[in-house]
Amino acid sequence: MSKKVIITIDRQYGSGGRAIGEKLAKDLGIPFYNKEVTEMAAKQSGMSKEVFDKVDETAASSLLYSVVTGAYMFGNHVPPTLDLPINDKLFIAQTEVIKSLANEGSCVIVGRCADYILRDDESVVNIFIHADLPVRLERAIKEYQLPPEKAEAQLNKIDKTRANYYHYYSGEKWGNSFNYKLCIDSGMLGIEGSVAVIKAFIEQRNTK
Amino acid sequence: MSKKVIITIDRQYGSGGRAIGEKLAKDLGIPFYNKEVTEMAAKQSGMSKEVFDKVDETAASSLLYSVVTGAYMFGNHVPPTLDLPINDKLFIAQTEVIKSLANEGSCVIVGRCADYILRDDESVVNIFIHADLPVRLERAIKEYQLPPEKAEAQLNKIDKTRANYYHYYSGEKWGNSFNYKLCIDSGMLGIEGSVAVIKAFIEQRNTK
Fold first, then answer.
1. What ipTM goes with this model?
2. Scanning every residue of chain A, which has its alpha carbon at the shortest distance from the alpha carbon of B125?
3. Which of A183, A188, A205 sits opposite B183 (nearest CB)?
């Protein structure tokens, strides 16, 4: 693969988005970043990984700080001593990490508003993976050992948190096709099939 | 292609969705239906093609009738003499045509809520095609000869009508990725590239 590509993958919980991203990165021979982004953000900001893990992909509960974060995102410097909620500190630290990873070369990045953070980068192909509820339930119970009786509520809660998080930092609607280059229902194709379709997309894009 | 597939394509105006559907049908050697659905609906219902053309893919302006249409859609018979708005008469006639076309075998159907009408048909792969505004504007001006100074307003008006139409009859949000098996931004790949990705999707689906 000669042309640089940053593939960002956002995903419904249980849709297999992470697994798809992992397989895709392996097939394309490029790095894969998921939780690693949070680890790097902790390391670079000197914050605790455990604290960051707790608020990963979660919006700050207060709207008060969004103006400040917004100012940061639009290029103004925020003094690092400013007492932002931990969620916003994580977002700011992840922003630095994601921009720096994208600068290094082709890669796959899962979640964490990477597509929004890299919205001006023309090498980005942003992808959204979703699936019908029964497919996601089956996967969540089997792969993530969610207790069957609690799985649906848990899954909906996680997706609501992800949607809020995406909307809070990007101002955009999570899962609205207009925001993504490619959206796939993984339920029809499974992991391997979805990877094949994404590879076809990247291949076509590389010929342009 | 051995496995039956009904490919429904909904699309933003100027995104090339129709052209993509046409090329796809040709490549797969299956029939393509766009305006033809409306022509057949006129023929079968004994209504005027010209009258139907005027309200094609447009929702009735009154909400009053949606209950009646809803009753029809959920399986209750509506007497043909009932004085429904012409939009609803067209929708009902198109519903019959689309169901009958889907029964005949593999095909590509553009717009007209075909994915919603065939929502219980497991052979359906429903697709949404969109593109950024500059791409759609260029296409609308070049291919559909929209006057450049009026193109953006005209394009937004048509898409608003399509979104209303889809929501009115399906109750779902037009362009929300969760409702489609595959959504593609055609701006990055063009017509040929988008067709190649859809073919990859169908190929993967045929192996399941």
1. 0.88
2. A188
3. A183
- Domains in chain B, please, with CATH? 29-206 (3.40.50.300)
Please count the residues of chain A. 208
CA dist A102 and A123 (Å) reads: 9
Most distant pair of Cα atoms in chain B: their distance: 49
d(CA A155, CA A167): 18
CB A208 within 8 A of CB B190: yes
Quote the radius of gyration of chain B (alpha carbons, Å).
17
State how far the alpha carbon of A198 is from the alpha carbons of A49, A133, B25, B80, in Å.
32, 22, 21, 47
Per-residue pLDDT tens over the stretch A28-49: 999 999 988 888 888 888 888 8
Closest partner CB to A130 (pick from B177, B192, B197): B177
A177 to B175: CB separation less than 8 angstroms, yes or no:
yes
| Residue A207 with chain B: CB contacts under 8 Å | 193
Tens of pLDDT, residue by residue over B17-62, are 999 999 999 999 999 999 888 888 888 888 888 878 888 888 876 4
Tens digits of residue pLDDT in A50-68: 878 888 888 876 444 444 4
* Structure token digits, residue B183: 């959504």
**More confidently predicted of A63 and B202:** B202
The partner residue sitting opposite A189, judged by closest CB among B175, B177, B204, is B204
Does the CA dihedral B127-B132-B133-B134 come out positive or negative?
negative
For A113, which DSSP code? T
Report whether B24 contacts B199 (CB < 8 A): yes
Are the beta carbons of B177 and A177 separated by less than 8 Å? yes
Query: Which chain B residues contact residue A182 at CB under 8 A?
Result: 182-185, 197
CA distance A167 to A150: 26
Element (H, E) at A124: strand A124-130
R_g of chain A computed on alpha carbons: 17
Contact B177 A181 (CB under 8 A): no
Of A177, A193, A197, the CB nearest to B180: A177
